[in-house]
Amino acid sequence: MCADGLYGNSFDFCRSLEDNGEKFLVHIHSNLKVFTEKPQLGTQGKTCRGRPRLKAVPGSEAARVDRIVETVPEKDWERVSVRNSTSGKLLIDAWRKKVWLGKLFSMINWNNF
C-alpha cells in the first residue's frame, strides 16, 4: 500500500496498517521527528494528580527525518519500483531504517517496507 503525506503523517492510520500486518510505504514530512534507537521511557518532573506522564529519558533524542537522511551514504540507497503509473513504472530511491515515532506511549517500528 502506498499513501501520500496526508496519510503518512497520520499516526493512527499508520498504526492501524501495522496492526493489521500490512506492508506500506507512505510519504512523510521532512520535519517529522523520530527516534533511531528505541527510547527508554520514564517519568520526569512532578505530576499533580492521576497517572504520571511517560517521556523519553535523557539520552534518547528525537531527530528530524531530513537531518537523518542527509547522513545516509549514497551506496545505502536502493532504486525501488513502487507501482505502475500512466508514464511507466514509478521508481523511487529508498533507504530503510528502523525508527520510532514521538508518541512514546504507542511507538511504531517502521521497518516493514
Walkthrough of the structure:
The protein is an alpha+beta fold and 113 residues long. The protein has one domain (2-40, 52-106). Helices cover 16% and strands 28% of the residues. The protein has three helices and nine strands. It has helices at residues 5-8, 11-19, 65-69; strands at residues 2-3, 25-26, 33-35, 41-43, 54-56, 63-64, 78-85, 88-94, 100-101. The strands form four sheets. The chain has a three-stranded antiparallel β-sheet. Strands 1-2 form a two-stranded parallel sheet. A two-stranded antiparallel ribbon has the order 4-5. Strand 7 (78-85) and strand 8 form a beta hairpin. The radius of gyration is 17 Å and the shape is globular. The chain starts with a strand and ends in a 12-residue tail after the last strand. The model is unreliable at 104-113 (pLDDT under 50).
The neighbouring-strand order within the major sheet is 6-3-9
Listing every helix as H and every strand as E from the N terminus to the C terminus, the arrangement reads EHHEEEEEHEEE
Structural class: alpha+beta
Indicate the percent of residues in helices.
10-25%
Proportion in β-strands: 25-35%
Measured between the Cα atoms of the first and last residue, the distance is 10 Å
Broad shape: globular
| Average residue-wise pLDDT | 78
Number of strands: 9
Low-confidence residue ranges: 104-113
